[in-house]
Write a structure and sequence with these properties.
Blueprint lengths: L2 H15 L6 E6 L2 E7 L2 H4 L6 H9 L4 H4 L2 E7 L3 H9 L4 E6 L7 H6 L3 E4 L3 H13 L1 H7 L6
Parallel strand pairs: 3-4, 4-5
Antiparallel strand pairs: 1-2, 1-3
Helix pairs in contact: 1-7, 7-8
Length: 148
């Protein structure tokens, strides 16, 4: 696993230990992490702090030109909201840990010229599968569906 995806996984594991949804993300500019985060919907009671959004928040306010030179690493395929932020800031490349437990908007990203790389990480998948087994209601809430 590459160092940046490993850093995103460390963020996901941190979120899991905090009782939240284990999805992590880092934003890399010129080979250096400039923002890192993890899903904080539970911890902060936020409807929007997914891993990617938290990483963007923690990167802080930056010129648009910086985002256009970044790579976003995320442990799970980006949802529509996070995809929108990636497109808004014209982040040109997204590396996804896995998309077997949840398929986000990868086709939309690719259709808009974003390079999408799926690492198919067993570690990312195992963490999500464990969480989904343990917390199916919380997972359903996070992806915007009502639990049956």
């Amino acid at each position: 696993m590459d160092e940046f995806l490993k850093a995103a996984l460390e963020e996901a594991e941190k979120g899991y230990r905090e009782g939240g949804i284990p999805i992590g993300s880092v934003i890399v500019h010129n080979g250096r992490i400039i923002g890192r985060g993890h899903n904080q919907r539970v911890q902060k009671g936020s409807p929007v702090l997914h891993g990617e959004m938290d990483a963007l928040e923690n990167a802080g306010r930056l010129p648009a030109s910086v985002y256009r030179e970044c790579v976003l690493y995320t442990t799970l395929s980006p949802c529509p909201m996070c995809t929108g932020a990636i497109l808004l800031y014209e982040i040109p490349k997204v590396v996804i840990g896995e998309h077997r437990t949840f398929m986000g908007e990868e086709k939309l990203l690719a259709s808009r010229g974003v390079e999408v790389v799926v690492a198919d990480s067993p570690e990312c998948r195992a963490l999500m599968e464990k969480f989904i087994r343990e917390q199916p209601g919380l997972w359903s809430e996070d992806i915007g569906i009502d639990e049956e």
